[in-house]
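Lecture notes, continued. The same structure-token format from the folding unit now serves as the input rather than the output. Read the line below as a description of shape only.
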């Protein structure tokens, strides 16, 4: 009974996703490209907690548990109320969505999990509509947009820009070890020595 009630609550929360971010893209895979050209892989949802999924490298030969699926299919939800930036090549912001295959299926979206002890943050899929916004630029590369220039004194607002601080790293989260997608909290390489710089690109299916 408790499980049914909890699942029902997740479904109600997830349905809020449709109210604002109501334009859904065609399905796509997320493909990783190493900056040095050493490998290419796809991203898969892999279990992290109750209705929570990390983004694991699909073909990882490490000890990521539970084992990721061959690849996952995602969508990008935008809103009729959202305007593109002045530089249209940066793309419109929206939320990255995925359907958790439960009974009934649970719409989920991507958000960052922050840990104050490290300079990495992990993107995690959770039920409902996230406030975490992403974008895909004219090359279909996944970015996080900003407009404050933090390297000036004092920090100043300016034109919107897109950041691509994506890394493939061996990580630990909620009792499991993974090889998954991570985001660097700053312009320098993260302290985790296993991290490799990657590009995240959507490929429609």
């Amino acid at each position: 009974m408790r499980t049914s009630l909890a699942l029902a609550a997740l479904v109600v929360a997830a349905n809020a996703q449709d109210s604002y971010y109501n334009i859904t893209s065609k399905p796509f895979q997320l493909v990783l490209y190493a900056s040095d050209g050493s490998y290419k892989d796809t991203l898969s949802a892999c279990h992290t907690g109750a209705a929570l999924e990390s983004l694991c490298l699909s073909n990882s030969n490490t000890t990521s548990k539970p084992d990721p699926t061959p690849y996952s299919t995602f969508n990008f939800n935008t809103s009729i109320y959202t305007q593109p930036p002045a530089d249209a090549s940066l793309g419109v912001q929206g939320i990255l969505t995925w359907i958790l295959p439960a009974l009934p299926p649970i719409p989920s979206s991507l958000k960052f999990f922050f840990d104050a002890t490290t300079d990495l943050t992990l993107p995690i899929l959770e039920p409902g509509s996230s406030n975490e916004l992403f974008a895909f630029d004219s090359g279909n590369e996944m970015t996080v947009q900003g407009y404050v220039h933090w390297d000036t004194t004092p920090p100043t607002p300016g034109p919107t820009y897109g950041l691509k601080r994506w890394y493939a790293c061996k990580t630990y989260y909620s009792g499991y070890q993974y090889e998954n997608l991570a985001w660097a909290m700053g312009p320098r390489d993260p302290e985790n020595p296993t991290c490799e710089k990657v590009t995240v690109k959507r490929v429609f299916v």
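Point for the exam: Helices lie at 2-15, 17-20.
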